[in-house]
Amino acid sequence: MVTKAQRLCFDTNALIYLLEGVRPYHAWVDRLFSDMEQMGRQVVLSVVTEAELLVRPLRENDLGKIARIQVTTDAPNVSVVATSRQIAREAAAIRADIDIKLPDAIIVATAIATDCDALVGNDSRCAGRVKAIPYIYLEDAIANGRVV
Fold first, then answer.
1. Does residue 64 form part of some domain?
2. How far apart are CA 148 and CA 146, in angstroms?
3. Are 91 and 109 in contact (CB under 8 A)?
4. Which of 11, 41, 129, 145 lies 20 to 30 Å from 29 when distance is taken between CA atoms?
């Protein structure tokens, strides 16, 4: 898969699939993530995604998973974006408009605020409601062999 996207935002579930080898999503997300790195293109993560990724490993005191998350989030082409007032306000507007959970709205708002070409995830609710930015729904992308 060779992506044309210059900047992609990844939802938490996509990163969980990548880091934990969840089938059938892992191979597709791994290839996309690797393509982005090899081509020097930007991966954007919301600080919410980083926090969500860390909850379970911290709860289980899984130092190996914590280290893998840090290696991924600290990669040279990965930016973890803090939630600003602008993003918070955009998230509130998104949540009010399409009725998705606040963490999801913050992730969508982060993708928009950082001029991402698309948001990659596997949330059917977001896939059906998010219109402000292309949402690459992994279930469909894998079934259709979609290239971003």
1. yes
2. 6
3. yes
4. 129
Task: Encode the chain in three state secondary structure.
Answer: CCCCCCEEEECHHHHHHHHHCCCCHHHHHHHHHHHHHHCCCEEEEEHHHHHHHHHHHHHCCCHHHHHHHHHHHCCCCEEEECCCHHHHHHHHHHHHHHCCCHHHHHHHHHHHHCCCCEEEECCHHHHHHCCCCCEEEHHHHHHHCCCC
Question: Six-digit token pair at 54?
Answer: 């860390």
- Candidates 47, 49, 13, 14; CA nearest to 148 is 14
Q: How many alpha carbons fall within 13 Å on the CB side of residue 146? A: 15
Q: Is residue 148 situated within a structural domain? A: no
Is residue 101 over pLDDT 80?
yes
Whole-model pTM? 0.92
* Domain annotation covers residue 52: yes
Domain CATH for 54: 3.40.50.1010
pLDDT of residue 44: 98
Q: Which domain holds residue 118?
A: 7-142
Number of structural domains (the chain) is 1
Strand partners, 43: 8, 78
